[in-house]
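Tokens in:
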């Protein structure tokens, strides 16, 4: 339990520095919060979906894990899923965001993923529902979006100081959720 609190504290510190930096450079009208009403999936990915595959997140993760910035793959958008990979020197973190059209559709998709993933019984207090997969990856629901943080390609000890893949997944999700606007 103490180790998880430490991981969440690291994630929170990174979130506070990242959000403070972006808020300072934004105009007041541009700083929306997660209290914005969900919107149906569109032809193009939403701003909040695009944010998960950004240089800012890359920098925040590099600082949080105490390692260099990752090579960020070119994001893809297919079937209302925005995704990318962060290839760090010692492992890869893949992030995807599925955008849906309603609360009912989001719940059904989230529940289907949980049922087919063989989720661990351990749950997280993130978003409007979250869980670990057997690989230590994290799935989080927020608004009409479902985010997956896949850490199956990370070594058993990642970053400086080293954390487990599941601890890394929690940190990545915390960084993104801390600044996710308009989800």
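Residues out:
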């Amino acid at each position: 339990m103490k180790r998880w609190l430490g991981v969440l504290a690291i994630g929170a510190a990174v979130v506070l520095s990242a959000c403070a930096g972006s808020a300072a450079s934004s105009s007041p009208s541009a700083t929306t919060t997660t209290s914005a009403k969900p919107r149906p999936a569109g032809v193009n990915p939403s701003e909040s979906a695009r944010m998960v595959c950004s240089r800012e997140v890359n920098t925040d993760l590099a600082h949080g894990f105490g390692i260099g910035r990752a090579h960020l793959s070119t994001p893809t958008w297919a079937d209302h899923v925005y995704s990318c990979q962060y290839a760090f020197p010692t492992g890869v973190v893949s992030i995807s965001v599925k955008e849906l059209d309603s609360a009912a559709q989001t719940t059904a998709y989230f529940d289907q993923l949980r049922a087919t993933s063989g989720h661990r019984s351990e749950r997280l207090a993130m978003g409007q529902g979250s869980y670990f997969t057997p690989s230590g990856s994290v799935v989080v629901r927020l608004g009409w979006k479902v985010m997956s943080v896949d850490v199956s390609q990370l070594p058993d000890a990642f970053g400086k100081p080293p954390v487990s893949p599941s601890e890394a997944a929690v940190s990545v999700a915390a960084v993104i959720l801390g600044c996710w606007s308009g989800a």
